[in-house]
Design a protein that fits this description.
Layout (H helix, E strand, L loop, with lengths): L1 H14 L25 H4 L10 H86 L14
Length: about 150
């Protein structure tokens, strides 16, 4: 019995997003940025055949681009990563709050109220329209349509 309680407590703790372990190797497990940010030197700068710079310039340009992109990202994420994470966390908390406490109750209330209106509408249709349509149907039930082809005159 005590082991089952420990297992259930352990499972509850592993589902808690605040104690969830972060994977430092695979930082995009759902691959949401696969197409967006893969920009290498060859994707941005290319020299067509016949207009080559010196090999040393090309190598230095490649290294400069790669290192500056790497360090610029590191500096920006170091300086702005935590504040932006705070901002995005706040934004998604507000969206969740509005959805949970605003949108869903309004929709449920609307569905409850519209159910009452639907019953009143159905009662009116059954009371007024059904007898009218039945009478028109009985009047038109004796109408017979005969189709025949006429020959075209030459």
């Amino acid at each position: 019995m005590a082991q089952q309680e420990e297992l259930s407590v352990g499972k509850a703790e592993s589902r808690d997003p605040l104690t969830k372990e972060i994977d430092l190797v695979d930082r995009d497990p759902k691959q949401i940025n696969q197409e967006v940010v893969k920009v290498d030197f060859e994707d941005v700068i290319a020299e067509p055949e016949g207009t080559y710079s010196f090999d040393g310039v090309w190598k230095a340009s490649n290294t400069t681009f790669t290192v500056s992109k790497y360090w610029c990202y590191r500096i920006l994420s170091g300086a702005l990563g935590v504040p932006l994470a705070l901002l995005w966390g706040f934004l998604f908390a507000c969206v969740s709050f509005c959805h949970i406490w605003g949108a869903v109750p309004c929709i449920k209330s609307y569905l409850i109220e519209i159910q009452c209106c639907g019953r009143c509408y159905a009662l009116c249709i059954r009371t007024f329209c059904d007898p009218l349509f039945e009478a028109v149907g009985k009047i038109c039930s004796d109408v017979r349509v005969a189709l025949r082809k006429e020959r075209a005159k030459d």
